[in-house]
Amino acid sequence: MCCESKMNIILNHQPYEVEDDCTLYQLAQLLPRSGQGLAFAIDGEIVVRSCWPEYQLCAGQQVSVFSAIAGG
Amino acid sequence: MLQISEQSFSSRLLLGTGKFASAQQMSDAVQACGSELVTLALKRLDLQQAQDDILAPLQQLGVKLLPNTAGARSAKEAIFAARVAREALGTNWLKLEIHPDPQYLLPDPIETLAAARQLVEEGFIVLPYCHADPVLCKRLEEVGCSAVMPLASPIGSNQGLKSREFLEIIIEQSQVPVIVDAGIGRPSDAVLALEMGADAVLVNTAIATAADPVAMARAFAKAVSAGELAHQAGIAGTQPLAQATSPMTEFLEAL
Question: Is any Cβ of chain A less than 8 angstroms from the Cβ of B68?
C-alpha cells in the first residue's frame, strides 16, 4: 500500500499542507481561479508563471501569494 | 478620444473599483458609465475567507485594468507591488501610488518620483498619483510617465477641486495627459475639471458610496461629456460688470 506524503509550507504566514513533491503550478491549482490573477513571491522574489511547473516547493518554505482586489 | 501612451479611450472617466457593495454592483457601475480603464488593488490572498471575484466581471466587460500600488509606503514597496501586479494581471499599466500617511493619504512626492523613474525603465506604463504640484508633475513627465494624476483633494474626502489653481497650471504646462484623481465628490466637480482642460478624471468614492451608485456612475459619465464639450466649445470669459443681453433702454425711451 502506498502512503501519500505531505509537507507543510508557510503560505501567507499560515501553515498550508501540500503534497511532498508539490510544484508552484500544483499549488496554484488549489487556490481560487486555479492561479489566474495570482502572483507568487518566494523569499521576496516573484516567481514568474512560466516557471511554476518546474518550481519545486520545500517543507517550511515561505510563500507569498497575491491577488487582485477592489481598489481605487 | 483620450490618448494614454499607445492606447485610445472613448471615455474620459476612469473608475475605481473600491467601496462598492458587491462585485456585481461594481460591474453594473462600470457598464453604466462606460469607463474603459478601471483600477484594482493587490493584496495577499486571504486563505480563510472567499473574496468577491472582481476580476472575472471586469474581464468579461473587456475594460483595461489599471492595478495600483496602494499600501506601498516607499519606492521599494511600490516597485515590488508593481512587479506583483504585472505578474498577476499580465499588464504593464500601473497607477503608482505611495501614501505612507494613513490620516490624509497624501502621496509621497520623493518616493513617487524615485519609483516612477525605476518603473519606466522596467517597461511599465506609469500613471503616478501625486499632489497638484506643477513642478513635481513636470519631473514625473520628464522621467517618462505616460500621464500625471494630480489630486483634487484627499482620497475619499469628496471635497472637490481644492487644488484648482494648481491643476490649472499643471494642465497648462503638461505634455502628457492630466487625469484629476482623488477627492472628486460630485458630477459638477468632474464637469469643472474637464471644462478646465483636464484630459480625464478618476472617480471612486463619490460613485461607490452614493445612495444609488449605478445612477451616480451614469451622472458622472454625462458630467464628463458635458465638461469636455464645454471646453471644446470655448467657454466665454467672465466680466467684472453687467453686460446687457436685451436692449432694455430703447423700449423705455419710446414711452
Answer: yes
